[in-house]
Write a structure and sequence with these properties.
Layout (H helix, E strand, L loop, with lengths): L3 E7 L4 H10 L6 E8 L5 H8 L4 E3 L8 H14 L4 E4 L8 H6 L4 E5 L11 H8 L3 E8 L9 E8 L6 H41 L1
Parallel strand pairs: 1-2, 1-4, 2-3, 4-5
Antiparallel strand pairs: 5-6, 6-7
Helix pairs in contact: 1-6
Bound molecules: 5-O-phosphono-beta-D-ribofuranosylamine.
């Protein structure tokens, strides 16, 4: 089976990255995690990926004078690895319209709220402050507008009366670890099917 090549961008802990790596171990998962890239040299995710045998590199944004130069290097690294799909997994840099344009329709992000509610940071505290009864996480395509791209899927969880931002975050995180691999599989399968259809069309035409 042809598998999509995925680059995971991280900045920290990397528990979603691990969920993607674990899912991709299965032979019938339609994507492989080809590389993990962190913008921070001290990200725990780099260590964890390496331990799991996944190539992990740092493109440290601090060594570049501008965001453009940082993103050009990121773009080069991803192309060198023949990446088809990018998964942002706790990647704490905002990507410019240029970068998003280069990878249009091919960047996924996981966000810890039921978008369009609570875009941005501090989502669990804001959800509790707002008194919502349901909270959760969203996987969406990345577009130029932060946390506003087309939604691929969501997982909802009930908020408990005694929840704190930490208890809520922990339950949402468990849901994230199921949702992200499922969404990646869906997008990868669609991509593979589209490219097979295109090839079949070309050979019919030729
Ligand atoms: C997750 O809550 C994710 O939704 C958000 O950043 C956090 C990353 O956690 N985008 P981890 O690094 O995957 O553990």
């Amino acid at each position: 089976m042809k598998r999509a090549r995925v680059g995971v961008l991280v900045s920290g802990r990397g528990s979603n990255m691990m969920a993607l790596i674990d899912a991709a171990q299965s032979a019938d998962f339609p994507a492989e995690i080809a590389v993990v890239i962190s913008n921070r040299p001290d990200a725990l995710a780099l260590e964890t990926a390496t331990e799991r045998g996944v190539p992990a590199v740092c493109v440290d944004h601090k060594v570049f004078d501008t965001r453009e130069l940082f993103e050009q290097q990121l773009d080069r690294a991803l192309r060198a690895d023949r990446i088809d799909i990018i998964c942002l997994a706790g990647f704490m840099r905002i990507l410019s319209p240029w970068f998003v344009g280069q990878w249009e329709g091919r960047i996924l992000n996981i966000h810890p709220s039921l978008l369009p509610s609570f875009p941005g940071l501090d989502t669990h505290k804001r959800a509790l402050d707002a008194g919502v009864k349901f909270h959760g996480c969203t996987v969406h395509l990345v577009t130029r507008e932060l946390d506003r791209g087309p939604i691929i899927d969501q997982a909802a969880i009930a908020v408990r009366p005694d929840d704190t931002p930490d208890t809520l975050a922990a339950r949402v995180l468990t849901a994230e670890h199921e949702l992200y691999p499922a969404c990646l599989a869906k997008v990868a399968r669609e991509r593979i099917n589209a490219s097979e259809d295109e090839q079949a069309g070309r050979s019919e035409a030729g």
